[in-house]
Specification:
Low-confidence stretches: none
CATH architecture: Sandwich
Mean pLDDT: 96
Radius of gyration: 14 Å
Strand order of the largest sheet: 3-2-6-7
Structural class: mainly beta
Strand content: over 45%
Largest sheet: 4 strands, antiparallel
Number of strands: 7
Number of helices: 1
Helix content: under 10%
Length: 94
């Protein structure tokens, strides 16, 4: 992705029928920078999908490789890491 892009990361969660009553946290970070989203700011749960909204300000100063991870807590308090990965962010030339 490019620094400063508007993005919506949509993650389907398999094996469930509803995310009602659940909450989620997501982080993207490297050694010097990070962005954190949760269901109070930037994450919405829709049916069986987690929607993570990135605004331009979230990554405008980012460049390089970042680790990211999303954790889901269901209505019973059970916690699951639903994905992890590496994101490469390039500076925009425009």
């Amino acid at each position: 992705m490019y620094a400063g892009d508007s993005k919506e990361i949509v993650v389907p969660v398999a094996g469930i029928t509803s995310l009602s009553g659940a909450s989620a946290k997501w982080i993207m970070k490297n050694n010097t920078s990070q962005v954190l989203k949760d269901t109070m700011s930037g994450i919405t749960l829709n049916g069986t999908e987690v929607h993570i909204k990135l605004d331009p300000i979230d990554t405008s100063t980012f460049s390089g490789t970042y680790y990211h991870e999303c954790e889901l807590m269901d209505s019973l308090g059970d916690v699951s890491t639903i994905f992890t990965g590496i994101v490469s962010i390039s500076k925009s030339m425009v």
